[in-house]
Amino acid sequence: AQKVTQAQTEISVVEKEDVTLDCVYETRDTTYYLFWYKQPPSGELVFLIRRNSFDEQNEISGRYSWNFQKSTSSFNFTITASQVVDSAVYFCALSEAGAGSYQLTFGKGTKLSVIP
Amino acid sequence: GAGVSQTPSNKVTEKGKYVELRCDPISGHTALYWYRQSLGQGPEFLIYFQGTGAADDSGLPNDRFFAVRPEGSVSTLKIQRTERGDSAVYLCASSSPTGGADTQYFGPGTRLTVL
Q: What DSSP assignment string belongs to A85-107?
């Protein structure tokens, strides 16, 4: 069965600090997809990134970067020079190719508070 | 273009009542998902539609929950004999499958409170 663990429940950082959100996943499939979503206080889930299991290249998008390591089953998310607008709950999610619906299994989320 | 929309945004009902929650997916998206998010938790899968048919309803908690998508666009999640434990935010997502797990785009959710 697929599982996503986000061990950090809450993190507080001071503005401009870098912060890394951890995500560890479990799956028996060789083909799977990993996602990060942001849920600001308004409540709507905002898509950030999607990676497939065959692409281990790290990705950078502005202040955001993602580190995918199959050897440790991790897909960590780093925010560089954090800003107050980054305050939100961040969810890591997994989708298995074996599940025909490609339903998402989410972690419990990490609440990030960026203090000015 | 417009994103996923859900109505109502909030619904308060009494235990034992029947409720309907509506989802309008992104135009052209053939895949539609319902999830439920309890306080402090990540969303949990309920049901998946590909077109008009419920291709995977394995996440529905019991037979009080039912969903339809009669014309392959708008979907309605129906809950009979509501219980206090049904209180949660119900999220709808849609995607346009091109092979593999395409990105699911979420609506703002319906917050259901059962008194």
A: GG-EEEEEEEEETTSTT---EE-
